[in-house]
Amino acid sequence: MKKDKYLKELTINETQKRHGDNTKKDVMKIQSWLSLYAIQNPESGTVTGIDGDFGPATEKAVKNFQKATKSSQNGIVTPQLFEKLCEGMKDAFERPLQSITLRNAMVEAAENHLRNAPFELEIKGQSNSGPWVRAYMDGHDGSPWYWCMGFAQTILDQAASALGKDFRSLMPLTYSCDTVGTTGLSKGLLTRYQTVRNNPSVMKPGDFFLLQKSRYDWTHTGIIISVGNDVIETIEGNTNQAGSRNGIAVLKRTRNFRKSKLDVFSIEPLV
């Protein structure tokens, strides 16, 4: 994969514990993963502040995680325990894809990520933060870093790489919907929403949708995984139940393409 910054989210430099010789950055990673674990396991009691201080609250959250995962409840985070904390990301990025076509691999990779519940955090008052955002955005996070394109390109990169292809032959590495939209126009790969409505067959699983604000301004993107008569099913990042371009998670959504301005970027040349 070309987008490999996720690897930094899977390790800590050394064991971290209360009253230990701790590294603030590693403690914040631990606190982040403890809070992310609680999103899928709300009864676990692992939510804690993300401030880099391994105090009594973090120690208790670690013990609660250890209890939930049937580990020794000593409140100490070894590199091995940290691997358990972030095993969902490792699975999402490194589970071997079984598909032999790019379109199927796109859907498979997107579903693998969805299953592991990528979610953003708010850290030091900044939304769009945390391990998942940094993994998709090549190390960047914070409120300005809308991550829907980062997620979509990660899926494309993962699927293409599994088949020995480089996604950058199709589009540049970017976090901008506008860049992908204008690239699609210049290469003849972007179908406007008016045509999409009249001929849904132009959309195929694995293609990107681009939500159009104006003719040359797009505000959100995601991966199309299935196409129906009036709706598409998608997997998209930085969204919520309302389909926001600045939401909180990777979600599977259903969108009515006949009522939305959804342009479509085709990945066909890479297929």
UniProtKB/TrEMBL annotation:
Organism placement in taxonomy: Bacteria, Pseudomonadati, Bacteroidota, Flavobacteriia, Flavobacteriales
Residue span(s) of domain Peptidoglycan binding-like: 25-85
SUPFAM superfamilies: PGBD-like
The protein, known as: Peptidoglycan-binding protein
InterPro entries, A to Z: Peptidoglycan-bd-like, PGBD-like_sf, PGBDSf
